[in-house]
Amino acid sequence: MAPERDFARTERTPAGATATTRPRVRLDQPRPPRRRILPEWDPEAFGRLSERIARFLGTGRFIVWMTIVIIVWVLWNSFAPHDLRFDNYPFIFLTFMLSLQASYAAPLILLAQNRQDDRDRVNLEQDRKQNERSIADTEYLTREIAALRIGLGEVATRDWIRSELQDMVKELEALRDGHVVFPAERSRGRDVDDR
User: Fold this and answer.
1) pTM (global) more than 0.90
2) Which residues of 13-34 are buried (b: 16+ CB within 10 A; e: fewer)?
3) pLDDT tens across 38-96, in order?
4) Who wins on pLDDT, 3 or 37?
5) What percent of the chain has pLDDT over 90?
6) What gap in Å lies between CA 171 and CA 167, rounded to an integer?
7) What is the rounded radius of gyration, in angstroms, for the C-alpha atoms of the chain?
8) Where is this region: Disordered (predicted)?
9) Are 31 and 83 in contact (CB under 8 A)?
C-alpha cells in the first residue's frame, strides 16, 4: 500500500521564470486580521454615550454646574492676583471653551434625537401591527356574536314556551270539560312577535 500524501499541508512553490517570492495564500484558512490605521469603535456604544451626554446636558444639574464654573471663572480672573489670572477681562478663553462645549453638544444632541426617532419608529410599527391584530380579533368576535344571534333566533324562547304551555293547558281543560278542540284551531310554530 502506497503512503498517502497530505496535500493540504504541502504547498507547492512556483518554479521557473514566473516564480515569485511571495508566499502562497491558503484558501482553506481565514486571513489574519489586517492592521488598521484608524481606530475602530462600536457605533452602538458611541450612540449610548451620546445619549447619556445629551440627557445630562438637558438637566438642571448641568445648568447649575455650568453656572457655578462660569461664576468661579469670572471671579477668579477678575479678583485674583495678576500673576494667577489665566484669562483677563474680555474672557476670550472662556468664550472659546463655551463655544467648544456648544460645538460638541449640538451634534451629540442630534445623534441622540436620531436614535430616539429610530426607536419611536420601531415602536410605532409595533403599535400599528398590534392595532391591526386587535382590529382583526374584534372583527372575528363581531362575526361570532352575529352568528350566535342568528343561531339563537332558532332557539325557543321562554315566552314562546310559556304561550305553548298555556295553549296546552287550555286544550286539556277543554277536553276535561267536554269541549273538543281541533288541532287546526291551535297555532303551531313560533310567531314573529314571540322572538
Assistant:
1) no
2) eeeeeeeeeeeeeeeeeeeeee
3) 877 777 888 888 889 889 988 999 999 999 999 999 999 999 999 999 998 889 999 99
4) 37
5) 39
6) 6
7) 46
8) 1-33
9) no
- The full DSSP string for 16-65 is STT--SSPPPPSSSPPPPPP-SSPP--HHHHHHHHHHHHHHHTSHHHHHH
Residue that is written with C-alpha cell 420601531 in the block: 122
The Cα–Cα gap between 86 and 73 comes to 9
Q: How far apart are CA 78 and CA 4, in angstroms?
A: 89
DSSP the chain: -PPPP-TTT--PPP-STT--SSPPPPSSSPPPPPP-SSPP--HHHHHHHHHHHHHHHTSHHHHHHHHHHHHHHHHHHHHS-TTT-SS-TT-HHHHHHHHHHHHHHHHHHHHHHHHHHHHHHHHHHHHHHHHHHHHHHHHHHHHHHHHHHHHHHTSPPHHHHHHHHHHHHHHHHHHHHT----TTTS--S--GGG-
Q: pLDDT of 14-53, one tens digit each?
A: 555 555 566 777 888 888 888 888 877 777 888 888 889 8
Amino acid at 116: Q
